[in-house]
Amino acid sequence: MEVSSAINSGLQGFQNASQLAEKSAADIATNTVTTNNVDDLSTSNQNRLNNNSQQELPELNQSIVNLKVAEYQAKASSEVIKSADDALGTLLDVTA
Questions:
Q1: Overall number of domains in the chain
Q2: I need a labelling partner for 37 at 20 to 30 A (CA). Which of 29, 62, 85, 94 fits?
Q3: DSSP string of 21-58?
Q4: What is the DSSP letter of 93?
């Protein structure tokens, strides 16, 4: 097993998790802002926006799920990095 490739895989996984978390958080914020602005609109515009918000609800749920997936992906990637670091320490006979 090549330690540097394991570390690179962990780093790449962590970066992907970070990007997914940022995108999901932005989607959640966008949907939340859209829903909270309903009170400031006239009745006809509120009905139109409520209909659109109901259609966007699955996207909000998916964004929340994606945020949790990103969390677990980041945790798993950090464990890969830690394992590769431990292996490198063992190979070099350097332990902390």
A1: 1
A2: 62
A3: HHHHHHHHHHHHHHHHGGGGS-HHHHHHHHHHHHHHHH
A4: T
- Exposed/middle/buried for 76, CB within 10 Å: 0-12, 13-18, 19+? middle
Output the pTM of the full model. Answer: 0.68
Share of the chain above pLDDT 70, in %: 67
Q: If phi over 0 gives left and psi between -120 and 50 gives alpha, with beta otherwise, what is residue 93?
A: left
Q: Which two tokens stand for residue 71?
A: 């969390």
Residues in the chain: 96
Name every residue whose Cβ is closer than 8 Å to that of residue 50 and which is 6 or more positions away in sequence.
38
Amino acid found at 48: R
Contact partners, residue 95, CB within 8 Å, separation at least 6: 89
